[in-house]
What we know:
alpha+beta; seven-stranded antiparallel β-sheet
Amino acid sequence: MQHLISKKKEAYPISDFLRSYLTRYGRIWTDSIRYRDLSRFTNAIPVYDEKGKDTLWSTVLYSESDRKEIHEQLLNAYAILKADGDTSITKYLYIDRVDQCIHGNTLPFRVRVVNRINENFDYFYVKKVDASRIYGLEIEHILSPNRINYFIHAHTIVEEHIIGIPADAFLREEIPVTSFDQVRLAKEFVKFNERCFILLLGDMHSGNFVIELTRDFEKWHFRMHPIDFDQQSHHWRKEVYLPQFFAQNEQFVSLTLKNLAPENVIQYQKEERSLMANRVRVSHGRFSALMDVMKEDIISPDDHVKKLGQQLAAHYKEPKFESCMTMGEIVHTSIMLLLDTTLPASFPRAMV
């Protein structure tokens, strides 16, 4: 196991075809905060966790004249996310702080919104537009158990906070779970691993997904949510799309090997494939509309498409992958296999 991505990925622009799709499904907003507005900060203070460790986020500070305008725009953006632009919901809200992630190449902003009446708070994110990320968000919204709320204005994307414990923090803090809970957690990792591979969502190491815990009678139910979609169907190595191969996820892999028999792994893979196939069937044309756009778009170099197509053709013993000309065609071919077969896509023999 190793970290499989060594080079930064370039951001891809939104094509006219993709913008038309996003407009059709209410993802475009004509007036809102822009990423470059938040970049006008005058100072930044590192944010440390409760143990004094650098979080790789910094709270940014604005001049008084800019702060008032930016905070008002941020509250309006929050109203778009939560109430389709109804700003009356912001009457008792204020912007507590704006943080920027200084790790990686996308430098997203995280905004903390607080209710002054009860001190309840929420977060949302302001990021640079990248077509790869948008395709990842849309595919996740349509074909996963998770709904994704975001909108785009010009060259900026505003995203709702995805609730959950960061998987790396979950492992680091050693959250206590029973032996039965370990089985459920292993089951979810198998399903998450399968889903990422089929959808070709890459770079899902423990820092790029969260774990949501829900109380279910006497036990806990776990669900894994991606939070980083920048590596949606971009890389040429198939292992990039399998969370099991990242060193940061080794504890989840060990947990799976310890708690699940090989026949259980296959069962859960088939269950997830069946659920995803059903989501394709009930997507009311949205999946097909997205694929029509994605198959025509360029979100990866040609040699990446060719190499990944060859690897998936060998993996599935399906020559159709080798004739794919774009990453969108590869994703479409991968998902269409769901409708024809229930054969597991991932967890090779070494895992089971």
